[in-house]
Amino acid sequence: MRSTFKILFYLKKNTPKPDATVPVMGRITIDGTISQFSCKMTVPPNLWDTKAGRLTSKSTLAVKTNITLDKISIFL
After folding, report:
1. Nearest by Cα to 68 from 54, 47, 57
2. Which of 10, 20, 44, 72 is most exposed, with the fewest beta carbons within 10 Å of its own?
3. Phi and psi at residue 18, to the nearest 5°
4. Which pLDDT does position 75 carry in this prediction?
5. Which residues contact 38 (CB under 8 A, 6 or more apart)?
6. What is the mean pLDDT for each group of 10 consecutive residues in the chain (76 residues)?
7. What is the pLDDT of residue 1?
8. pTM assigned to the model
9. 33-40: which pairs have CB atoms within 8 A and are 24 or more residues apart?
10. How far is CA 43 from the centre of its chain?
11. What is the DSSP letter of 46?
C-alpha cells in the first residue's frame, strides 16, 4: 500500500494583526490524516502566492520568509 505525504503553507486571513499582516500556517497530510501548525511568521497578504505557497516579491522580507519556509519543508 502506498503512503501519501503533502505539505501546504497558507495564510490565516481571519486573524490579521494591527500592522495588517497575517500569520503563516502549515498543514501536513499523511495518508489523509491532517496536522496543522503555526510557522511563527506574519506576512502581508498582498505578497502571498496561494498556488506556490510562498511570497512573490524580491524584497528582503520575502526572501527571508521563503528561505524559512524551505527549511521547514526540509525538516519535515
Report:
1. 54
2. 20
3. -60, -25
4. 81
5. 23, 24, 25, 26
6. 90 94 96 95 95 94 96 87
7. 72
8. 0.88
9. 39/9, 39/68, 39/69, 39/72
10. 10
11. G
